[in-house]
Here is the input.
Amino acid sequence: MPNIVTSASVDQNLALAKQCSREAALAGFKAAAIGTIASAIPTLASVRLLPWAKANINPAGQALIISTVAGMAYFIAADKKILALARQHSYENAPEHIKDTSFQGTGRPHPGFFRP
Here is the structure.
């Protein structure tokens, strides 16, 4: 039996996708803010305290280090949130026979080389 797609179901799925996108962006922004602070403090401190860093890391290098960490944190956190939401919603919308994750066995004994 073919599934009939209605305008209401499309609108509902679109609203759910927008909500998930907002949640992922918020998680990414939080992680980027924390990553920026967590990388800025040691970077700026090392440039002032360590002779090697003072000689070799110019302001552009400092900005590159800090922004790279912030960007990585944003994309990692957003990706994790997107995957978590996708997993959650795919389980909610799954048919009942897939939701039943209990192992029922195959009804036949295992071959001898698989026995414990």
Q: What stands out?
A: The mean pLDDT is 79. Residues 57 and 67 are 14 Å apart (CA to CA). The longest helix spans residues 7-49. The two ends are 44 Å apart (CA to CA).
